[in-house]
Amino acid sequence: MLSVASFAFKIDSAARILLALISCLVLFTLVQDYLYASFRGSGYYIEESLLFSSFWLFFIPLWLAQWNWLRFTVKASTLSMLIASIIPILLHLFIYAVFIWLFSGLFFSYQFEVRQTLWFGLTEYLYVLLGFYVAPILLYRWYSPTENITKEKQTSSVQLSNPIRQLMVPDGNRKVVISVTDLLYLEASSPYVMLHLEHKKLLHRETLKSLEAQLDPAEFVRVHKSCMVNCNKIQVVRSRGNGDYDLELVSGAVIRLSRNYVSNFRQALQLSGPQDTLIFTQES
Questions:
Q1: Counting Cβ atoms within 10 Å, is residue 209 exposed (0-12), middle (13-18) or buried (19+)?
Q2: What is the pLDDT of the chain when averaged over all its residues?
Q3: What is the 3-state secondary structure (H, E, C) of 75-117?
Q4: How far apart are CA 215 and CA 207, in angstroms?
Q5: pLDDT for res 144
Q6: 166-283 topology per CATH
Q7: Which end of the chain is more exposed for a tag (fewer CB within 10 A), N or C?
Q8: Paired sense of beta strands 227-230 and 192-196, if any
Q9: Which residues of the chain have pLDDT under 70?
């Protein structure tokens, strides 16, 4: 699991590289404008050239925001990828045009219209925008499957070889060690997990996905996207008649079993023992 410090270091490194690249592009644009003005025999105004070179600066926040959104998005569907490509391009053009309009109105004798700058950005830099904002999508699609396969292998290895038996959890101003066998169910409370025990609940500094990879799959099973249940604490399973089920635990708590997780739930009960499967078939 990527630590906060490691993630922050990677983001900082990417920001530094991107800043160096943008600085070079700004310098290149200034030189290009000067050569173009000299070739045409027209006047060269460095203030105006610097102002319009601000186009490159907006790549820094928008590109990093796009990349982070791709990393943390729940489902990398075709629609989400399309949105992640189009929205930054439109935002970039709009922010650029508004910035030029505001800055020129405050410090220049002539104020550039938003529509004028939008058209300039679209005709001059469309290929650049497509390159900068489509490239991360292609990289993500290429990198993501490999990353997911690696994570799945690591998860399977942990689950089958050495599942955790205890957790150290904050309880007020102290930390307590609890046995996983005492857990009734685990509930996502992003970015933490709420651990439900018989007579109390504790907030644990870890994600549900991370704990799922460490717990014994014969004991703990995901019943919907934000909840895992201890199979040994299930007392009764009742059908809702629509594909979903209600799981009544020994504490009396009732947890919903989503129809999307029924198949995995049955498999987990079979691993737990035939008596649990009998409870499921009789009460459902």
A1: middle
A2: 80
A3: CCCHHHHHHHHHHHHHHHHHHHHHHHHHHHHHHCCCCCCHHHH
A4: 12
A5: 52
A6: OB fold (Dihydrolipoamide Acetyltransferase, E2P) (2.40.50)
A7: N
A8: unpaired
A9: 1-15, 18, 71-77, 140-161, 271-284
